[in-house]
Amino acid sequence: MLNRPKTKTNVDIYGQQYSIIGTESTSHVRVVASIVDEKMREISSKNPSLDINKLAVLTAVNIVHEYIKLKEDYEKLEKQISEKD
């Protein structure tokens, strides 16, 4: 695996500026930040009284929930494929 140089990407999430340093491409980091921003705005619109900390935690919980469901679906598909071989 190649060692990619670290890059710094500035993003806006829920009106706050963040500098994210990592080896992923700038476009990837911006997509991730956009998804987090979108989810925060979605949750906030349904529950406008949430403070920023609770909103951030609920956003994290929602995104991890979605991740786990996708991972479970992926594993089921992998199992189905391996059973057909």
Automatic annotation (TrEMBL):
GO biological process: cell division
Subcellular localization: Cytoplasm
Classification via PANTHER family: CELL DIVISION PROTEIN ZAPA
Self-association state and partner proteins as the record states: Homodimer. Interacts with FtsZ.
Keywords, ordered alphabetically: Cell cycle, Cell division, Cytoplasm, Septation
Protein name per the record: Cell division protein ZapA
Main location: cytoplasm
Biological role stated in the UniProt entry: Activator of cell division through the inhibition of FtsZ GTPase activity, therefore promoting FtsZ assembly into bundles of protofilaments necessary for the formation of the division Z ring. It is recruited early at mid-cell but it is not essential for cell division.
InterPro entries: Bac_CellDiv_Activator (IPR053712), Cell_div_ZapA-like (IPR007838), Cell_div_ZapA-like_sf (IPR036192)
